Amino acid sequence: MGAYILRRLLLIIPTLIGIMVINFALVQFVPGGPIEQVIAQMQGQGDVFQGFAGSGEDAGASAPTGDEQYIGARGLPPEFIAQLEKEFGFDKPPLERFLNMMWNYMRLDFGESFFRSISVTDLVLEKMPVSITLGLWSTIIAYMVSIPLGIRKAVKDGTSFDTWTSGLIIVAYAIPGFLFAILLLVLLAGGSYWQIFPLRGLTSDNWDQLSWLGKIGDYFWHIALPVVASTISAFATLTLLTKNSFLDEIKKHYVMTARAKGLSESRVLYGHVFRNAMLIVIAGFPAVFIGVFFGGSLIIETIFSLDGLGRLGFEAAVARDYPVIFGTLFIFGLIGLVVGILSDLMYVLVDPRIDFERREG
User: Fold this and answer.
1) What is the pLDDT of residue 51?
2) pLDDT digits (tens, 9 = 90+) for 306-341
3) CB-based contacts of 240: which residues, under 8 Å, 6+ apart?
4) DSSP 118
5) Considering the entire predicted model, what is its pTM?
6) 249 and 258 in contact (C-beta within 8 Å)?
7) 73-120 pLDDT tens trace
8) In terms of Cα–Cα distance, which of 358, 348, 355, 234 is closest to 282?
9) Alpha carbon of 86 to those of 80, 82, 98, 116, 307: distances in Å?
10) DSSP assignment of 34-98, as one string?
11) Which end of the chain is more exposed for a tag (fewer CB within 10 A), N or C?
């Protein structure tokens, strides 16, 4: 197992490099950039997109060369544009910029945001609590509800319980998360009916004055609605996956043998079937967590006025804040690859009979 883990760890390096090469190359063909963003803001055009839209008949023309290569830069001193290029590092060729960036990343130096005067690491750490809150609690709730429900549906396969619960979770899966979040706001956060839950933030303004028990209650009071909105669509896939896994195992001969020996149904299900049926569910844990952690977080964070990684990524993309874009891409890519290795380790913990080295051989 040690050799297998070592090989997987070594594969992280070329995989990360491949991810960064592809995205860095794609960015070179995307119109706009940090310099255009600065020019647009200086000219009162808001952002780079408005700068392109407001360039009149020149917007559809080919990009000028030399000192006029930036649309909207006409009238600005060439020395100023050159200074901007030097500050952002665009006075170097793309290959040199990429190699310097990767060398810094390998030393865990992710640079500083172009527009926020804060290091990328500090910026990510500042936004991380919101995304961890949504991802962790949504995943825990999804597993705590879906696994027992899936087991029960497998035992009651074909009954009315199985039918109406399947309909319920499919309806929940079909509801868009952002629409359900708005519904929760309208009903429970003072939109039109009851003011039961707070509208924004992870904590109250008087957080520091609360007791430790009050802080715990205040924290869960604030995260209740966004976590529910993030979790609503996660039940269907996990529940049906658990049910089908149990149905496959229940039909096998070792289950009939265990029943023939007089073992109770609970002993058969949780002592024998559970370990084998949970392998595929555990294998999907990293995907569920990463999916909830990143997917849809922008909309949920915006609706509930939470300042997390979703909004950070969106704002960085709009502003062309390349250090934030590539720094977070590197960090999250590394997290995803490490979580994939952890899922293999969970396989072995659940069923020690699995030997990845023998399978590879």
Assistant:
1) 41
2) 888 888 888 888 888 888 889 888 888 888 788 778
3) 150, 166, 169
4) S
5) 0.71
6) no
7) 555 677 777 777 777 777 788 888 899 999 998 888 888 888 887 888
8) 348
9) 10, 6, 15, 18, 31
10) HHHHHHHHHTT--SHHHHHHTTGGGGGSPPP-GGG-STT-TTS-HHHHHHHHHHHTTTS-HHHHH
11) C
Mean pLDDT of the chain: 78
Q: Which amino acid is at 82?
A: A
Please report the domains of the chain, with CATH numbers, ordered by start residue: 31-93 (no CATH), 121-360 (1.10.3720.10)
* Residues in CB range of 354: below 8 A, 6 or more apart: 347, 348
Q: How far apart (Å, rounded) are the C-alpha atoms in residues 320 and 174? A: 34
Identify whether the C-beta of residue 128 lies closer than 8 Å to the C-beta of residue 309.
yes
Q: Which of 316, 359, 361, 355 is nearest to 1 (CA)?
A: 355
Give all strands (DSSP E) within the chain, no chain letters. none
190-241 pLDDT, tens digit each: 766 787 888 777 778 788 888 888 888 888 888 888 888 888 877 888 888 8
Place of tokens 């049926």: 277
* 298-302 contact pairs (CB < 8 A, 24+): 299/177, 299/178, 299/181, 300/134, 300/177, 300/178, 300/181, 300/226, 300/229, 300/230, 301/130, 301/134, 301/226
pLDDT given for residue 18 in this prediction: 92
DSSP 8-state secondary structure symbol assigned to residue 102 = H
- Contacts (Cβ under 8 Å, ≥6 apart) of 257: none
Torsion from C-alpha of 223, 227, 228, 230, nearest 10 degrees: 150
Q: Which of 90, 109, 98, 91 is nearest to 21 (CA)?
A: 98
Copy the structure tokens of residue 17.
């490099």
